[in-house]
Amino acid sequence: MEIYLDNSATTRICSEAVRKMTYVINNIYGNPSSLHSKGLEAEHEITLARKTIADVLGVDFRELYFTSGGTEANNLAVFGAARAKRRVGNRIVTTAAEHSSVFESCKALEDEGFEVVYLEPDESGNISEEDIFNAVDEKTVLVSVMIVNNETGAIFPVECIKNIIKKKNSPALFHCDAVQAFGKIPVKPYRIGCDLLTVSSHKIHGPKGSGALFVKKGTFIRPILYGGEQERKIRPGTEALPLICGFGAAAGDIGIIPKNLQAVGELRDYTLGRLRKIEGVKINSPENALPYIINISAVGVRSETMLHFLEKKEIYISSGSACAKGKKSHVLSSMGISPERIDSALRISFSKYSSREEADAFLSALEEGLGTLVRARK
Q: Coil, strand, or helix at residue 96?
């Protein structure tokens, strides 16, 4: 039996998304920018998807812009906001634990003359409100802080940021990467107070290759692509209609978020209870982490070695962010975790479809692997 517990990397596509995409591929093949009836049909489908996702976020559908995924949406938010505001300041505040699509974008903006403050999480993986407050000043043009960390599940204090920006008389735009939060906890941009917010399809059982950026009405950012009128020139280029429609179908199939969260929370608590009894396992996720993600270290066994051991049993987890492709985690490094624990780090990530039986199979295999592989090294 296949055990898939790598849902923070990507999720299995849901049947509703497959059905919608199949219908669109076969029947709605016009270019959404064409003015004839086939184009209007395609544009209608995009609007339906946009409205469905906007309804989940509690925003006006006209505030949502489709992209090729979370990485592009994060790049658009970071570069677009910073460059639009550079006349009033050059300071960017973010965290050292952001997804690479934000982290590397900020690094690139340093080459353009921006000063970037990377707030480091504490040893549990959390970011303090005090550190955010002290970092923001009157020259800050962008604050970009994720809602849920993709490696540890730590939930960052984003709801305090808008007030901090106001108290500091800062002109900053506020961006949230909500890729790991969307569909798992209630994500409402207006409640958070952010100007920009990123979501992605393939983290909610939709297809890969589609994402969206919420841009609050009245917020100006500079595009990073040029060449057409699509997405109101914020993100030009012919829209990937089947992927967008699949994204919309997946958003419509999210279900009751609090109910799913409770069920996954119970599964997380059960899994943690058993993990704490396994010799050599250290928990890297904070106590208040999103229940969908557990980061551990199987001390004494390199991550890659354990992953291959589990894969032979058709059990699939990861060693951290899939985008890192096996490189050492900058997130765990920023927490001050020892190199030995980083080298043996594993991420277990659930979905609303995960079961206790799957957790049991993983836990038994992990315990077997620790015993077998540690002995083999001696």
A: coil
Q: Enumerate long-range contacts of 19-27, CB under 8 Å, 24 or more apart.
A: 19/249, 20/245, 20/246, 20/248, 20/249, 21/207, 21/242, 21/243, 21/245, 21/246, 21/249, 24/241, 24/242, 24/245, 25/242
Q: Which residues make Cβ contacts (< 8 Å) with residue 71, sequence separation at least 6? A: 101, 211, 323
For residue 157, what are the CA distances in angstroms to 65, 146, 169, 192? Answer: 25, 9, 20, 10
Q: Which of 106, 160, 194, 323 is catalytic?
A: 323
Does the active-site annotation cover 176? no
- What pTM was estimated for this model as a whole? 0.94
Other Cβ atoms closer than 10 A to 108: 14
pLDDT (tens, 9 = 90+) of the chain, 378 residues, equals 899 999 999 999 999 999 999 999 999 999 888 889 888 999 999 999 999 999 999 999 999 999 999 999 999 999 999 999 999 999 999 999 999 999 999 999 999 999 999 999 999 899 999 999 999 999 999 999 999 999 999 999 999 999 999 999 999 999 999 999 999 999 999 999 999 999 999 999 999 999 999 999 999 999 999 988 888 888 989 899 999 999 999 999 999 999 999 999 999 999 999 999 999 999 999 999 999 999 999 998 999 999 999 999 999 999 865 454 556 788 998 888 999 999 999 999 999 999 999 999 999 999 999 988 865 454
CA distance 3 to 368: 16
Q: Token digits for 295?
A: 């980061």
Q: Which stretches does DSSP call E strand in the chain?
A: 3-4, 64-67, 91-95, 115-119, 140-144, 173-177, 196-200, 211-215, 281-283, 293-298, 315-316, 345-349
The CA–CA distances, whole Å, from 246 to 15, 72, 205 equal 10, 18, 9
Cα(213)–Cα(317) distance, integer angstroms: 28
Contact, 197 vs 214, CB < 8 A?
yes
The structural domains of the chain, ordered by start, are: 3-11+256-377 (3.90.1150.10), 15-252 (3.40.640.10)
